[in-house]
Amino acid sequence: MKVHFYKYQATGNDFVVMDNREGKLSLTKEQIEKICDRRFGVGADGLMLIEKHASLNFNVEYFNSDGSQSLCGNGSRAAVHFASKLGLVNGKSTFNAYDGAHSAELLSTGIIRLKMNDVAEVKTIGTDYFLNTGSPHYIRFVDNIHAYPVVEEGRKIRYSDAFKPGGTNVNFVQLLPDNTIYVRTYERGVEDETLSCGTGVTAAAMATSLKGYTSPVNIKVKGGDLSVEFKSGQSGTFTEIFLVGPAKMVFEGDLEL
Ligand SMILES: N[C@@H](CCC[C@H](N)C(=O)O)C(=O)O
């Protein structure tokens, strides 16, 4: 069976996107792994099916490259760009994802401003933090981020007993001047460092606000620049959270399933 796909990147987090509004596509874990494989397939950190939704503009079914599912912040921004290309939305949009309903805006600059769901709690673990921004995220502040062994240390935390059985994504964050942070993320489901993680930088911005940084927090990742806006509530609660950054279609093609 031949399937048309679109390749997207959002600050270097890359995705295979397919239009499944007719509901004909149902992919197995093995098919997802093969499509996302960088040698035997198209190659991507994740895969998304864009589907119809009864009351919102569309539904996003997101899969990590190993076939597991969660919310993808960068993927959702790419999905909004794709939905706009399909003519499903014009400027403002609403859609359903793994953690429920979201709204977003595609600005004339090509930047996507995605509303994230509220954060009810930030746990403190020694000098580290843990919170859920639609996906689970562990945050550790480090110095000299560029030399930090992200994969080695990330893997230890991701597979630690404390986070079994689901595991967690792990973010290493360096505080920079001017309300800016540099974030590197070990992503579960990709089982490697990615160039950017949207739910991860959102979690990092929340943790950084507990250290006195204010909204918007400017984010630097290996794949580019983002920003996170939010309102802080009492004792580690956050509302009005927006993940803001670019997403681009890179190429399209057909693949044999
Ligand atoms: N890259 C994503 C996060 C995707 C989900 C994550 N790997 C998980 O399984 O929790 C993002 O941009 O948020």
From TrEMBL:
<feature type="binding site">
    <location>
        <position position="169"/>
    </location>
    <ligand>
        <name>substrate</name>
    </ligand>
</feature>
<comment type="function">
    <text>Catalyzes the stereoinversion of LL-2,6-diaminopimelate (L,L-DAP) to meso-diaminopimelate (meso-DAP), a precursor of L-lysine and an essential component of the bacterial peptidoglycan.</text>
</comment>
<dbReference type="InterPro" id="IPR001653">
    <property type="entry name" value="DAP_epimerase_DapF"/>
</dbReference>
<feature type="site" description="Could be important to modulate the pK values of the two catalytic cysteine residues">
    <location>
        <position position="137"/>
    </location>
</feature>
<keyword id="KW-0457">Lysine biosynthesis</keyword>
<feature type="binding site">
    <location>
        <position position="64"/>
    </location>
    <ligand>
        <name>substrate</name>
    </ligand>
</feature>
<feature type="binding site">
    <location>
        <begin position="198"/>
        <end position="199"/>
    </location>
    <ligand>
        <name>substrate</name>
    </ligand>
</feature>
<comment type="subunit">
    <text>Homodimer.</text>
</comment>
<feature type="active site" description="Proton donor">
    <location>
        <position position="72"/>
    </location>
</feature>
<feature type="binding site">
    <location>
        <position position="13"/>
    </location>
    <ligand>
        <name>substrate</name>
    </ligand>
</feature>
<comment type="similarity">
    <text>Belongs to the diaminopimelate epimerase family.</text>
</comment>
<dbReference type="GO" id="GO:0008837">
    <property type="term" value="F:diaminopimelate epimerase activity"/>
</dbReference>
<feature type="binding site">
    <location>
        <begin position="73"/>
        <end position="74"/>
    </location>
    <ligand>
        <name>substrate</name>
    </ligand>
</feature>
<keyword id="KW-0028">Amino-acid biosynthesis</keyword>
<feature type="active site" description="Proton acceptor">
    <location>
        <position position="197"/>
    </location>
</feature>
<keyword id="KW-0413">Isomerase</keyword>
<dbReference type="Pfam" id="PF01678">
    <property type="entry name" value="DAP_epimerase"/>
</dbReference>
<feature type="binding site">
    <location>
        <begin position="187"/>
        <end position="188"/>
    </location>
    <ligand>
        <name>substrate</name>
    </ligand>
</feature>
<keyword id="KW-0963">Cytoplasm</keyword>
<protein>
    <recommendedName>
        <fullName>Diaminopimelate epimerase</fullName>
        <ecNumber>5.1.1.7</ecNumber>
    </recommendedName>
</protein>
<feature type="site" description="Could be important to modulate the pK values of the two catalytic cysteine residues">
    <location>
        <position position="187"/>
    </location>
</feature>
<comment type="pathway">
    <text>Amino-acid biosynthesis; L-lysine biosynthesis via DAP pathway; DL-2,6-diaminopimelate from LL-2,6-diaminopimelate: step 1/1.</text>
</comment>
